[in-house]
Design goal:
- Two copies of one chain form a homodimer.
- Chain A contains seven helices and three strands, in the order H-E-H-H-E-E-H-H-H-H.
- Chain A starts with a helix and ends with a helix.
- In chain A, a hairpin with a 7-residue loop joins strand 2 and strand 3.
- Chain A is mostly helical.
- Chain A has a three-stranded antiparallel sheet with strand order 1-3-2.
- The first copy, chain A, has two domains: 82 residues, Arc Repressor Mutant, subunit A, CATH 1.10.10; 82 residues.
- Chain A binds a DNA duplex through helix 3.
Chain lengths: 180, 180
DNA sequence: TTGACATACTCAACAATTTGAGTATACCTT
DNA sequence: AAGGTATACTCAAATTGTTGAGTATGTCAA
């Protein structure tokens, strides 16, 4: 149940509505944790029933009401409890690698196309992340929370770069590999 | 439902029992697709009802009977159909990065320990993969299927190395970062 | 003025994954 | 003789994740 802990981490910095948490996920957490709005709303409901968060309804003019969620002491305790548990590397499930394995039985040409498509996707993400990194580096005295957020962004940057490099390696291999 | 396609890819090379498929996953597919025995058995049942695979029961002396599964023409057609569909990068969910984000609110010292633990885990996997790569490189004329399997291993190698490099980067950052 | 987009949340159904127990045999070590 | 490990598979429950519909209001551009 690490989704709830990710939400706790986000709420540790500031109180937010479900909708805002969802946006925060898209903007800055998405390189290592993705969750849909529905998941977040449902999780917040569960977390509230466990006493990890509370909410206050805020009426807005011209917009629907919103529920601003805040972390409680119980929630902070839970975050601290979870924090010291060892984490295992996340299991990976990569369709593209399954295709590499299947390619000799299906089509190497299709694989080549797919690799080029994927390389492009990863390049686009990399460029996004580079822009975020540049924004961080332009800050004269980034606060502690930003410095740690930057470390997670570094992981994202490396990850995308690594995919690009591997795609290039495989495309290069496919050029040289003799059919048999 | 890409688990079924991974199984189809494995069965394209050779017919195997559920148990053997599970072992194959652990040995050579695990760097990009993990599945438990239960998942594989259940998936094989579904795949058989769709006509993608068939099985033959093999009686064994001193061991339980086993069901050897083979890919059918329908199964191969399905693999080919799936193969040309574009794949999206897999959503990532990394507990460790959530911990980096939460660290300023919890404990930077615990984070440091956890990073060292994780670095070690990734290093062990890297060493495993390097041994597999060496075994491949020792083959004088690797068959096509092996050459493609090696490409997936290259992804695993890069992935583990990248984690190690990032852990080092963060540990280095934590040494220099001044508290505030 | 129509349609796209943004805010803000709820509910339901379905699919996938995880966890754990259960059944059975045989080999090998202590 | 007991315990650990390996082979080989089944069933069920709980949790998690995905998909899509539904409700409501406001802004902005074509």
């Amino acid at each position: 149940m690490a989704l709830s802990h990710t939400i706790l981490a986000v709420l540790s910095r500031e109180s937010l509505s479900g909708y805002d948490i969802s946006k925060r996920f898209e903007e800055s957490v998405s390189c290592y944790w993705q969750a849909s709005q529905q998941q977040i709303y449902r999780e917040l409901g569960k977390m509230e029933s466990q006493g990890w968060v509370t909410h206050e309804t805020v009426l807005q003019a011209g917009k629907p009401d919103k529920k601003i969620y805040s972390i409680t002491d119980v929630g902070h305790g839970e975050l601290a409890r979870w924090f010291v548990e060892p984490t295992e590397p996340t299991p990976i499930r990569e369709d593209l690698l399954v295709k590499v394995l299947a390619a000799p039985f299906v089509s190497i040409d299709s694989l080549r196309q797919e690799l080029q498509r994927r390389r492009q996707l990863h390049l686009e993400k990399l460029i996004d992340y580079q822009a975020m990194a540049a924004a961080y580096q332009a800050m004269p005295h980034p606060p502690k929370t930003e410095r740690f957020r930057y470390l997670t962004l570094r992981r994202g940057l490396r990850y995308e770069q690594d995919w690009i490099d591997w795609c290039d390696e495989v495309l290069d291999f496919l050029k040289q590999d003799s059919p048999e």
